[in-house]
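Technical note accompanying the year-one report. For the benefit of new consortium partners, we illustrate the data format agreed upon in the data management plan: each record pairs a sequence with a C-alpha cell string. No post-processing was applied to the example shown here.
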Amino acid sequence: MMKATLRYLSDLPRYESEKPYELWLPAEDLAEANVPSTNCEFEEKPGINIRDVRTSTAEFAFDTTGFKFVLDPLTLDRHSPESLWKQDASLKEYLEHIIRLVKREFGAVKVICFDWRYRVSQSSKRDENMEYEPDRGHPLRPAHVAHQDDSVRGGQNRLRRHLTEHEINAYEGGLRARFVNVWRPLVPAVEDMPLALCDKRTVASVDLIDCDKIHPDHVGEGTYLKYRPSHQWYWLSHQTKDEVAIFVTWDSRAESHP
C-alpha cells in the first residue's frame, strides 16, 4: 500500500443551487462567450491509501469493483507512439485487437470503438483541466481529478450519439450497454503518473456531482467525485505494456453510477 495525494471536486454549498460546468471550446470561442471557462473548484487530499493490486488478496470483477487488470501480451513494435500520432494502419490494427479483447472479456454481442486517446506525462504544461484538443493524434496529459466520464444521463446521451436507430431500438428494448475504458502503457513499465481506480462499491450516489461539459458540437455530462474517507483506491505497481486495465465507466443497468 502507498499513500498519495488525490484531487477531488470541492464540496461547496454553491453546488446545491449551481451546477458545475466546463467549456471545452477553442480559445476564440471562449473569448467571444466572455464567461469563465468553468465554475469547478478542486481540492487536494493528501495521505489517501492506494492499495496495490499486485499484492492485494481482493477479487476484482466488472460487476463488483468495476475494473480488473488483464494480461494481454502484445508486440507493440508496430504500435509505437509515433503510429498513434500518424493514425496509420497500425493504429487500426491495434484498435481492432482491443475490440476483440473487450468482446472476449465481456461476452459482448457487439463492441464499438468510438474514441481513443494517447496520454503522456511529459507533455507541455497547460491547464490540465481545460485542455481543448479535438485531434485524437495529439497527446494529452493524464487526468488529475477523480472523475467518472459519464453521468447516468450523460451516458444515455452519448449512447444515442454513437448508435444507429436499429441499435437504439435494441437498447430501449432491454439490451445492456456499457462504456468501457482500456488502458495500456506504451512503455515497458509505468514509473510515474500511474492510473488509480476506485472500487465502485465504496462510492455512494451522494459522493458524485454531475458536471456539464460543453463542446463545440455537443453537451456532455460527466461526474466529479467528492472526497469521502470510505473510498477504496487501487493501482497496479510498475504496470507493464502487457498488463491492461479494463474498467466500466457507464452501465445502462446502473441507476446511479457504474
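Partners are asked to follow this layout when depositing records. The chain is about 20% helix and 25% strand.
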